[in-house]
């Protein structure tokens, strides 16, 4: 059977979930692609940490070792932060590898550049996992954009903030208590500022802006607010009026101007994001022909993110298989 060689960059929560998911779904992948997916290498940061990896997997702290894997075809990237992810993916593209990333900070800043380079080297990029975990928003929008004009998006793009607001309302608990619970459950990092101050949702919104409009607004002109200043009193007062605080990212185009914002907003029962609870993400798309479309699903966790990355991988190779059939 044909073998597709892949490598993983990063073996944290997402990387390990991806490794396990590829192995557990090997049969489905083989049936779909007509090829075995072989994880040939894993780039790690800490060589002393014990990991459950097959003996035939190259485990290294040196990215050049990954690039030198013979017949490497795909690089999955699940490293936190902008650097050195961008450098690694640039080199992987130049090596002729398709790349699939979950790195929202890096892709918000360098996505357009990487996409241009990918076209130059005739490789593909999958970035579904950068925006809403297991929710297929990128592919949905890309499909709509063939004819429809997307006029506006409102979205809950950070599962941690949504979880905190939900728990504060349901259990009448203060922000600090629920944040600690989110950290204990693995929904929030030790430093949760990206999530609770709105930056995570902002980066995701900028990725959507590139997809929708081919450009981003000036980052300094986008109003970004988090949820850390919302008190339990405010949440319970709203609840008594049958209203709920939601952390909403919104983007639309007014003439040539892109208008974007991220911040808490009060919603009532008529709002399409009113019933989105817990760690779920949701995106409401207003399109010129299709009207209003809403999609919802888990936005946090290793397996939803791994799912998005594997679906990107399958999509890329199905397209290649179809292209080969036509030649």
The largest sheet is: 6 strands, parallel
Basic shape: globular
pLDDT below 50 for ≥5 consecutive residues: which ranges? none
Got a strand count?
12
Provide keyphrases for this structure.
2 domains, about 325 residues, threonine biosynthesis, alpha/beta, NAD(P)-bd_dom_sf, Rossmann fold, amino-acid biosynthesis, Asp/hSer_DH_NAD-bd, EC 1.1.1.3, Dihydrodipicolinate Reductase, domain 2, 6-stranded parallel beta sheet, 6-stranded mixed beta sheet
Report on the architecture of this protein.
The protein is an alpha/beta fold. The chain has two domains: 156 residues, NAD(P)-binding Rossmann-like Domain (Rossmann fold, 3-Layer(aba) Sandwich); 164 residues, Dihydrodipicolinate Reductase, domain 2 (2-Layer Sandwich), CATH 3.30.360.10. It is built from 13 helices and twelve strands. It has a six-stranded parallel beta sheet with strand order 3-2-1-4-5-6, with helices on both faces. Strands 8-10-9-7-11-12 form a six-stranded mixed beta sheet. The longest helix is centred in the C-terminal third of the chain and has 25 residues. The mean pLDDT is 92.
